[in-house]
Amino acid sequence: MAEKSISSAVIHRLPRYYRYLGELKENGVERISSAELSQIMSVTASQIRQDLNHFGGFGQQGYGYNVAYLYTEIGKILGIDRRNDLIVIGAGNLGRAIANYGNFERRGFHIVAMFDRRADLIGMDLGNGLTVRNAADLEQYLAEHPVRMAAIAIPKTGAPEVAERLIKSGVKAIWNFAHIDLEVPDDVVVENVHLSESLMELSYKYHSRHPEAE
Amino acid sequence: MAEKSISSAVIHRLPRYYRYLGELKENGVERISSAELSQIMSVTASQIRQDLNHFGGFGQQGYGYNVAYLYTEIGKILGIDRRNDLIVIGAGNLGRAIANYGNFERRGFHIVAMFDRRADLIGMDLGNGLTVRNAADLEQYLAEHPVRMAAIAIPKTGAPEVAERLIKSGVKAIWNFAHIDLEVPDDVVVENVHLSESLMELSYKYHSRHPEAE
Q1: Rounded (10°) CA dihedral B20, B26, B28, B33
Q2: Which of these, A191, A153, A189, A152, lies nearest to A172 by C-alpha position?
């Protein structure tokens, strides 16, 4: 599979294809044309053909796409055809929201441990089989459980230090909710969720569409 | 200001410029060259010049950018030079994380009410001046308080109905955390935060960088 050559724009769209194909599959749809998929997803049919051609051989003229096959293949490309364990640093509302988000588990992501340094949170039973661990024990935990993915859900001031500790303990993928850009070595990947920035984009869209608004 | 012609890619980068310029301003930096800004932000200087040229006249050859001025102007473009009220639907962990996220208030976003339909959450004091209201009272609240922005932080099954109710009550901007694409009229804008999809992108990046991983 020629994964290396896929642009980040295509990669960005893959989870959405995966979501729609999953819904079609659940509804018993076996095959779908790019025109039909185009209508459901509000994307042009040519965009869909172009995107899915990157993975070759899924679509056939006059037949369309095999939904289950395409769903499985995109899952493989996204690396979610296997179990992915992750730990969460920060047991505040955001960390708990992440830990309790049932959708992740359906996609093969398992949150196996949760850490915080706040004494009032350490030991808290999260009701999903997890108890908040002391952040001081992070290195020991990762030495015993070589987890490679971690979510950082703490304020930005503490995030760079936590990221450094995670990386030293072998973490290779950081899901960063702290409002700061982390500096990481080449073999570590970061995906940012900057909520403030998303809200500012909403604000831009709103005010440019409604210039009369206060 | 020629806002209409700015591409969505540039808009997507503006909040990050805003964040860095805000930090520079806080640190007392008065002016900065595109080369310096480039180094801090890990973006090419030509990209910075190209992006900021959309707003015209901020940079001067041999002088660089006036940090405070550029910060203010980008804030205006993003519509955060004024107060923006929003309500939050869903008082679960995610909704509470949004409601307690102090950074928003610094950017002029004020969460003025929070709603849920779960009896065990209605009436809950969130400790930030907010008490969870009954979702059944949404229309009445919006009739009395014409808020135009709303965050939807509930499971996807209920999200389309809630969006419809919000829109009927005059909401024009939806910050959507539900894992579904909302259908909205032309004058309503949506910004999605699809956490599962972000996590799948992290997974892709990780597995493509580390193909040897299990």
Answers
A1: 10
A2: A189
A145 three-state secondary structure? coil
Residue B177 token pair: 């955390």
Query: Would you call B175 and A207 a contact, using CB atoms and an 8 Å cutoff?
Result: no
Please judge whether A97 and B100 are an interchain contact, meaning their C-beta atoms are less than 8 angstroms apart.
no
The helix or strand, by DSSP H or E, that contains position B134, with its residue range, turns out to be: strand B132-134
Q: State which H helix or E strand residue A45 sits in.
A: helix A45-53
**Distance (Å) from the C-alpha of residue A136 to the closest C-alpha of chain B?**
24
What ipTM was predicted for this assembly? 0.91
User: What is A84-197's CATH topology?
Assistant: Rossmann fold (3.40.50)
Residues of chain B found within 8 Å of residue A103, distances taken between Cβ atoms? 179, 195-196
**Which tops the pLDDT comparison, B57 or B209?**
B209
Q: Return the DSSP state at A181.
A: P
**d(C-alpha B4, C-alpha B210), whole Å:** 42
Of B97, B175, B208, nearest to A3 by CB-CB distance is B208
Q: Domain-by-domain residue ranges, chain B?
A: 3-78, 84-197
CATH 1.10.10.10 fits B3-78, yes or no: yes
Residue pairs between chains A and B whose CB atoms are closer than 8 Å: 186
The structure's pTM equals: 0.90
* φ, ψ dihedrals at A60, nearest 5°: -130, 135
List pLDDT tens digits, range B23-43: 999 999 999 988 899 998 888
